Amino acid sequence: MDTLQETKHIQSMLVTSTRTYTNNASIAADLAAMVAQSGKKTLLMDADLNRPVIHRVFELPNRVGLSDILQGQRSAEAIMHKLIGDNLHVITSGIMPTVTKDLIGTKEMSNLIKQLKQQYEKIFIHGPAFFYNEATLLAAQVDGVVLLINPNYAKSEATQAIVERFQKTGATIVGIVMRDQPRYQSNQSAFINRLLNYDKHNRIGS
């Protein structure tokens, strides 16, 4: 995992991958849980509306969630799940509307992130794989992006292309996770330590 860029206030982060998730794992969930355990008020949101996993990670109901908020049917407070001693709040994806809608790229999504930044010290968004348009839309709305690079995408040319794609949105790449590597878990923990130390140094969330 690369070093954290100390360029701006990193409060909201999109976590996206070079491929779609095929199991119940989520780096966003791992990072959010670790930060919440450190004592910070943390929000985890599942914004992968077509392939949601966060509700399965924490064994939560998914009858209502982000899709309902974005359609004006529920408030964020009404569908929030509270975990880890009330430090971790989770918004699941909810059910995707039967009629396809661009919910992620809406003003409602942008306003929701702004609202949540007033309430939480850290926000982690589990997003769709980087090649979906929704990932690019989300990258433009957050302070930073964490990329999950799988081994078959680890070549420098492919990695650079991914980074450039997101940088064009104005997003800051705050970390790159190399998945399925021997030191994967220790690297993830090291990233959290750098993130929290960066917060302390810059008085973020204090």
UniProtKB/TrEMBL annotation:
Cross-referenced SUPFAM superfamilies: P-loop containing nucleoside triphosphate hydrolases
Coiled-coil region: none
Keywords: ATP-binding, Nucleotide-binding
Transmembrane segments annotated in the record for this chain: none
Record carries keyword ATP-binding: yes
InterPro entries in the record: Bact_polysacc_biosynth/exp (IPR050445), P-loop_NTPase (IPR027417), Wzc-like_C (IPR005702)
Matches recorded under CDD domains: BY-kinase
Entry GO CC: plasma membrane
The keyword Nucleotide-binding is assigned to this record: yes
Gene Ontology terms for molecular function: protein tyrosine kinase activity
Protein name, as recorded: Uncharacterized protein
UniProt source species: Anaerolinea thermophila
